[in-house]
Amino acid sequence: MNRTRLADLVGLVCRLALGGVLLAAGLLKVGDPVGSIQSVVAYRLFDYQIAEMIGLMLPVVEIAVGLLLVLGLFTRWTALIGAVLMLAFIAGIASAWARGLAIDCGCFGTGGPVDPDDTAYLSEILRDAALFAAGAWLVVRPRSFAALDSLVFRRPGAVPADPASRHTSTPASKGAS
Questions:
Q1: Computed from CA positions of residues 159, 163, 164, 166, in that sequence, does the dihedral angle turn out positive or negative?
Q2: Structure confidence by residue, pLDDT tens digits, 26-73
Q3: What pTM value is reported for the model?
Q4: Per-domain residue ranges for the chain?
Q5: d(CA 158, CA 6)
Q6: CB 16 within 8 Å of CB 146
Q7: For residue 23, which of 105, 85, 91 has the smallest C-alpha distance?
Q8: Start-to-end Cα distance in the chain
Q9: Is 90 helix (H, G, I), strand (E, B) or coil?
Q10: 3-class DSSP assignment, residue 100
């Protein structure tokens, strides 16, 4: 497998990982707005009105960004949004940990106070750091297999890549030898 194909495969894995996690997280929260708000309030970072707005909007943003990533549409921009979300989540979790709060992150449903032995801050931060890395990869190199970007944003007159044509010589290269 050549480097380009390997990089395209890495891009596909990054898209599906980040997009799939965001899509799942949003879908699990969107049907429970009270629980989603409760999750944001538990961090004690915002006034209630702001926490309420975040709790209501975040699942919708996660679903939209996740779906676009899974489809491979507007990949660079949606990956940037996804990576920024991961940084915000890492900061929130690290803040709760540093302040001694005992909460469930609320990443995949309703969060809130838990027994201190039931916190999983390190694993949550590591998970989100890996997802941030996936987003960063896609910001730098948004191209991947099975992405709608390659169909929707194809340049007029561009011929689709044919792996077999890379190994054939052109008339100009025959005359140059």
A1: positive
A2: 999 999 999 999 999 999 999 999 999 999 999 999 999 999 999 999
A3: 0.86
A4: 3-145
A5: 23
A6: no
A7: 85
A8: 28
A9: helix
A10: coil
